[in-house]
Amino acid sequence: xxxxxxxxxxxxxxxxxxxxxxxxxxxxxxxxxxxxxxxxxxxxxxxxxxxxxxxxxxxxxxxxxxxxxxxxxxxxxxxxxxxxxxxxxxxxxxxxxxxxxxxxxxxxxxxxxxxxxxxxxxxxxxxxxxxxxxxxxxxxxxxxxxxxxxxxxxxxxxxxxxxxxxxxxxxxxxxxxxxxxxxxxxxxxxxxxxxxxxxxxxxxxxxxxxxxxxxx
Length: 216
What we know:
This protein has about 220 residues and is mainly beta. It has three helices and 14 strands. The chain is about 10% helix and about 35% strand.
């Protein structure tokens, strides 16, 4: 994983806090095709789903059950969110969820001392499944007063957003550990939802033929 700011694609991606947490943003849903999932380059692609490095070849396949993930995989959506506090970060986590089978953990890459700095880490709950603001969380690196790879209460993670300089959330998604597998069906975060199952083709209705009238 590269410690770089997102590369903007199209319009600016730093969102107002109200929109980020669904205050003024209506929930939307979008289908995600496996062919649209890119790979992390020199920076995170903005407004797109991608695999973070290192990438496991052939880790992603898709069918009507969802996105099949095999082996070590970081599946992330690049979206910059600035102006975060402990409270708004907790609101973001409380509004995030995903559905699927297998073993997956929610993951959030963050800069804790402003864009482009080296205080980069990924945050994740210890428990697999949808994230919660209870239980313990882990920071991958020792930054913003957080220990590395050590479970701490979620409140400790949230407090780091109040003491850090210009924290920036870079992306969000799921992580699958080496040797594990999972099927991701849907994910919701920041007031938006994504569907990872191949859409079932619509069945065309059978034409109704006009009744014939016979006279003798």
